[in-house]
Design brief:
mainly alpha; 99 residues; single chain
């Protein structure tokens, strides 16, 4: 699990660094088919980074949902914990389907 997370983190850092390099002013000075290819690559990389960030933010929100469920279960009486967790599970399920 740790290796997988580490690989994902390295891939995201590499994508951000490539995006920073691709947006340098030196690449924007050329004209012709080369610059069109560079622009297309920049747009594709930008879309990939935006998509990755959206997924990361969604994962964080779902983990926050689980944390709030645990907090709410801790603040309720023992006989109501199942109902509270069921409500939170349904909330997360409907939110995931809507996303």
């Amino acid at each position: 699990m740790y290796r997988r997370c580490r690989r994902i983190a390295i891939a995201l850092i590499a994508a951000i660094l490539i995006g920073a390099v691709m947006s340098s002013p030196a690449l924007a000075q050329g004209s012709g088919p080369e610059s069109e290819a560079v622009e297309a690559a920049k747009e594709e990389l930008g879309r990939a980074i935006n998509f990755a960030w959206t997924l990361i933010a969604a994962f964080l929100v779902f983990f926050m949902q689980a944390g709030f469920a645990m907090v709410e279960a801790g603040f309720s009486r023992a006989k109501n914990v199942v109902a509270v967790l069921t409500k939170n599970f349904m909330d997360a399920l409907i939110g995931g389907l809507a996303f």
